[in-house]
Amino acid sequence: MxxxxxxxxxxxxxxxxxxxxxxxxxxxxxxTMTPYQNEQDGVSAGGKWxxxxxxEKMTGAKKVRFELLSDNYFREDPDYKxxxxxxxx
Length: 89
Known about the structure:
By secondary structure, this protein is of the alpha+beta class. 28% of the residues lie in helices and 28% in strands. The protein is built from one helix and four strands; from the N terminus they run H-E-E-E-E. The longest helix has 25 residues.
């Protein structure tokens, strides 16, 4: 014999798993794709910093670029977020 409470509990458990799966996908999307050739996509370097790695083809030197993207926009250009970039060669 099925009760009303067991159906409601099953729906609540299903909703819990769906929300958990969606939050896991959202957390996985924190990296970003690079606009430069021969550079790996960005990975989290801690906090809101992203790390982009590349290797120079001629010398084999490893290059690293760190990027910190702002949370707000310039008043003059609302499509561009200000950023800080550090290059290590």
